[in-house]
Amino acid sequence: MKWVVWLFFIVFFSLYGLLNYYLGLRGWQYIFRYLPGLSKTAYWVFFTVIAWAYVIEFIGKKTFPLWVNVALTWIGSYWLGILFYAFLILGMIDIGRLLVGWTGIFPGLQAFLAGHRGMITAGVVAVIASLMVYGSLNALSPRVTRYEITIPKSGGSIKELKMVLVSDIHLGKIVGVNRLTKMVQMVNQCHPDLVVFAGDMIDGNVDIFTEQKLDNVLKEIKSKYGNYAVLGNHEYISREVDRAVFYLNKGGVRVLQDEAVRVADSFYLIGRDERSTHGFSGSGRKDLADLLVGVDRNAPLILLDHQPQNLAEAELHGIDLQLSGHTHRGQFFPVNLITRRIFENDWGYFAKGSLQVIVSNGFGTWGPPIRIGNRPEIVEIFIRFQP
Question: Which of 244, 263, 74 is nearest to 157 (CA)?
């Protein structure tokens, strides 16, 4: 299995290096060689540090001062966004130029591009800068998305339930105490009966909890029946799952790892462990059928599962409502067109037979701290139990 992991990293970093070389070459050709006093060697050294800032931070995070790690994280994060859109735009321009040269159509286009290189370059830079600014502001503007659903079962003494779903906060060097405080305020303004977190609360570095005392912020969440969470792939990427669970529980958020609990003697909340856990711990998660042993199927069954995959399994076993995250709805256009193809439901409400599914696009960001084409959210769900 190790050779597969090594092969993945070799292919990934090779492609990443080629993309950066392409963009670095275009940057030198179109912009930086015209700057007085800047040598080609100095340019490539500076460009390499920017392009590989994420990797440099990962390698030296235990050696560098905290402010260096934070700076490298911000630089690396924004660079991913810049690289994505720069490659998209420049790639289309270069492909168009090559096609014109090969086919001979639009014979004047080559001359136009050559004669207006400065204007085109300025336009590309302006578009990318505008996307970064807009995406950054949009990522800091979360909204409340509301749904009303009916579960055709008796909830006992509870006839109606107001639930708040939050997913993919990605607490770390970019999303910190201020964003978490805002999230808690938004949740409390909904006056929820129950709060659930659908994974990826932590981006990978559990130390953020001790550095910014985030467990104290989580304790401020007010709900009638408690706060629950499942783990996502990023909690496992941290390789510190036990610490993550400890601090979340300390913050008043009960983590469900392949277990079902009956809430207020009314409905069941079933928390599945992250589906990719076998890749990190080697153990794998339990089958849904095993989690439902001893569960009263006549009661409402609400499933928390980080990734909205294999919805047919949840439908087969009589789950009434599944709550998920993970997709970010692509986080920025046009990646949402890909997530729409990968997942049966990558965002919002979806019904599959008797199963109802709600997927959140998340509260935070991963990688580039931008959102383009969707806004971060917390999800307010008003549930009626009507047998």
Answer: 263
Residue 107: is its pLDDT beyond 80?
no
pLDDT band with cut points at 50, 70 and 90 for residue 237: confident
Do 194 and 237 touch, CB atoms closer than 8 A?
no
Considering the entire predicted model, what is its pTM? Answer: 0.90
Q: What are the tens digits of pLDDT across the range 61-76?
A: 888 888 898 999 999 9
Q: What is the pLDDT of residue 381?
A: 98
User: Tokens 């496992």 sit at which residue?
Assistant: 236
Which residues are within 8 A (CB) of 91 and not within 5 positions of it... i.e. 6 or more apart? none
Residue 278 has a pLDDT of 58
One DSSP character per residue, 253-318 reads -EEPSSEEEEETTTEEEEEPPPTTHHHHTS--PPPHHHHTTT--TTS-EEEE-SS---HHHHHHTT
User: First and final CA of the chain: distance in angstroms?
Assistant: 49
CA angle 21, 27, 32 (to 5 degrees): 130
Write out the DSSP string of 209-223: HHHHTHHHHHTT---
Q: Are 147 and 360 within 8 A, CB to CB? A: no
- Residue 195 sits at φ, ψ, to 5 deg, of -120, 130
pLDDT at position 282 over 80 = no
Maximum CA extent, the chain: 77
The mean pLDDT of 202-221, rounded to a whole number, is 90
Closest CA to 263 of 225, 300, 229: 225
